Amino acid sequence: MAIVKFHGGCHQIGKSCVEVNTKKSKILLDCGMDPSDNSLPDIKDSEYDAVLVSHAHLDHCGAIPYFNFKKVYCNPPTADLMYNVWKDTVNLSKIYKEEDIKKTMDVIKTVKYREEKQVTSDIKMKMHDAGHILGSSSIYLDVDGKKLLYTGDINEIETRTLCSADTDIDEIDTIIIESTYGSPLDIKPARKVLEKQLIDEISETIENGGKVIIPVFAVGRSQEIIVVINNYMKSGALKEVPIYVNGSLTHTIGMYMGYSEWLNPKIKNTIENRINPFGNLIKNSDEVFNKEPCIIISTSGMVQGGPILQYLSLLKNPKNKLILTGYQAEGTIGRSLEEGVKEITPFKRAIPVNGTVIKVEFSAHADYNSLIRYLKKIPEPKKAIVMHGERYQALSLAMTIWKTFKIPAIAPTNGSILPLF
Ligand SMILES: [Zn+2]
Ligand SMILES: [Zn+2]
């Protein structure tokens, strides 16, 4: 009998790491780090035949270079993006070194969406577009004849940069599903409404001559937000002001352009017609402190490390505004700002927060309704396991699946071992 064991990512967002263990083989689905405290899954790398990576976010791939794995499977854009996020990790947290990245790049095997791959003697896999970031995948496994779908992070709606999650999937025995927005309290406004809200907030600050600071992850909603801002500026609905981005963002935008065939067909056509959908971006420099008004888009998304920290002093000025656009984990500066603290201490000296802090949840994740729609579109699984959500969200989605679909559903805790069949 095969089992799944959860090394991380249960009742939390961070450190996703799921072991699939049969009599003959042992693999991992993702091997992430917890971005709030840099902790890693407690595993013994030599036991595993391979790691299969859903996408290039730190909570899914951040721990990989720390270990010595024999093989790492992912698709080509994910391999490139991982290199980028690992380099950032080396610079920021030093939990591994440049040589560890090189050693990991040497064992990466790339696969395309929907390409069937024999991973071990009794495990076959197929990746489906998950609609979450460039290259993001749901991983479909045939484990000795039993079918497992690991959704990874999914977005069920089409966005400006990406297609919606692929739901044309073969029959499923067990689904392991994310639950970032798994509770009925997590119903988000429509994308168009959010875009309008974001632009209105930016507009207000710019009209007042202030600066807008937007913390983002290098990959995902940052590209989406830049395309939205650029479109509104081009149409004249938003005043044209300089947009400053940091180095790793420029780099990942380049990758989005380079992998245009993995994007939404509309943006792919734009790129093929030699129009840059991201517009003119300026590399961050000290010039932003004197430039008024302007927009600063910088990593990291939870304001925990990264170049964004050096711009937080701008919050002393009440004219300026910081816009959070995604989930803020407990213990991060982003979460404190979201909770309305009056003072932050990114470095030695405390900074008073006199500027405005708001949140426009520009998520790359399916909201509650969207998760239910996703479950209705895919073949009905016989059993559901819910992870990648805080405790309330995970338990809530498990309850909804059980009540709505009459499917046994649980939200295990880290360390749990469950039979796969
Ligand atoms: Zn993600
Ligand atoms: Zn995630």
Automatic annotation (TrEMBL):
Keywords: Exonuclease, Hydrolase, Metal-binding, Nuclease, Zinc. Residues 14-191 form the Metallo-beta-lactamase domain. One of its GO terms (molecular function) is exonuclease activity. Transmembrane segments: none annotated. It comes from the Archaea. Residues 222-337 form the Beta-Casp domain. This is Beta-lactamase domain protein.
